[in-house]
Design goal:
Blueprint: E1 3-4, E2 9-14, E3 20-26, H1 36-46, E4 63-65, E5 69-70, E6 73-74, E7 79-84, H2 106-113, H3 129-144, E8 149-157, E9 160-161, H4 167-172, H5 180-195, E10 202-209, H6 223-232, E11 237-242, H7 253-256, E12 260-261, E13 264-265, E14 273-274, E15 277-278, E16 283-289, E17 299-302, E18 308-311, H8 321-355
Antiparallel strand pairs: 1-2, 2-3, 3-7, 4-7, 5-6, 8-9, 8-10, 10-16, 11-16, 12-13, 14-15, 17-18
Helix pairs in contact: 1-3, 3-8, 6-8
Length: 357
């Protein structure tokens, strides 16, 4: 499936080494100012080739809006977006066209479809995520109208974890580190891993602010279940936590419950979501990324004829996909919140119609 959302719906298309990546956004309300500079800034945050901590594949990532915008404003019609691929090196993959890369989707894609695009992983490549960031930028334009804001940063690289949460530091950091006191240690572990021709995993923290009470559609489109669905659909994500997450399973109800006073909740163990519905508190999500499977060490694998072979990769790959993945995850949260916001407006209208009938 390549579509997500109920009212704010995104459909993405394209492959890593195809002509380009694109998406169609359906449900964008009419009359929203389309801030092209902001949209490009969002795409630039995700771009590779900007420093040694990311892939050296440097794409321009210039957005082309094909429809749905007139004289700088959304028309309410589907918005078509295309982003050209202009820095592919497909020959780097000629040597593995019949081999399955350990840790990649090559094996499963081939056995499901009987065919696969081996050039950078085709549709299973993280290159596809540029469409999600573009869609997320449009979602943020909706959220901006309601003063809702999303932020992200790197909480942990390997065993090096942030002790302070500073989204301002993450915004200016080369690796989006949330804690300047451990940033250099996190950078060091990435560089050392890269020098040893390996990769390393990481954890991103994604938060949303100024959230109204009532976002989420129980029982089968809860806010937290939608977050889990979309985040786990992102390449390399192996786990998602909301609020205290796993630690909740180690807690007593008396300590895990967020007690309520006139002024609001006294804590936020829930991560801003109760019963699948936002409770007005800050939404906090941890997204866990596995190490980049493309590493430059000899690995054991098989080919399409089940012959056992030794694999040695070429190409340009991120030593830690969590870094740029954090930007994508933030965009995904914006998409979810935009959809939930529009759904909430519909549910309120139906409620009012019943009252005044």
């Amino acid at each position: 499936m390549n579509t997500f959302g109920k009212l704010f719906r995104i459909t993405t298309f394209g492959e890593s080494h195809g002509s380009g990546i694109g998406c169609v956004i359906d449900g964008m309300p009419a009359g929203i100012f389309i801030d092209l500079e902001f949209i490009q800034e969002e795409l630039n945050r995700r771009k590779g080739g900007q420093n040694t901590y990311a892939t050296q594949r440097k794409e321009e990532d210039r957005i082309q809006i094909l429809s749905g915008v007139f004289e700088g404003y959304s028309t309410g019609m589907p918005i078509g977006i295309f982003i050209e691929n202009n820095n592919t090196k497909s020959k780097d993959y000629d040597g593995i066209k019949d081999l399955f890369r350990p840790g990649h989707g090559d094996f499963t894609y081939f056995h499901k479809y009987g065919i696969r695009d081996y050039r950078g992983g085709g549709r299973s490549s993280a290159r596809e995520s540029v469409a999600r960031v573009a869609s997320g930028a449009f979602a943020k334009l909706i959220l901006r109208e309601f003063n809702i804001e999303t932020k992200s940063g790197i909480l942990q690289i390997g065993e090096i974890q942030a002790q302070k949460i500073d989204f301002a530091n993450a915004r200016k950091s080369e690796i989006f580190s949330l804690d300047k006191d451990v940033e250099n240690l996190q950078k060091e572990i990435i560089i050392n891993t890269k020098k040893s021709h390996d990769s390393i995993g990481g954890v991103a923290l994604i938060s949303a602010f100024n959230i109204p009470i009532g976002l989420g559609e129980p029982l089968y489109y809860k806010l937290d279940s939608a977050i889990g669905e979309l985040m786990l659909g992102l390449n390399g994500v192996k786990a998602v936590e909301i609020g205290d997450g796993i630690n909740s399973a180690k807690s007593l109800g008396s300590s895990n419950n967020d007690q309520i006073r006139k002024s609001g909740f006294t804590s936020n163990h829930s991560g801003g979501i109760l019963g699948g519905i936002s409770n007005g508190e800050q939404i906090n999500i941890k997204v866990y990324f596995k190490p980049t499977p493309s590493i430059f060490k000899p690995q054991k694998t098989i080919d399409e004829n089940k012959n056992e072979v030794d694999l040695m990769l070429k190409g340009r790959h991120d030593p830690c996909i969590a870094i740029r993945g954090s930007v994508v995850a933030e965009s995904l949260l914006a998409i979810i919140l935009a959809d939930m916001l529009l759904l909430n407006m519909v549910s309120k209208i139906e409620h009012l119609k019943k009252i005044y009938k």
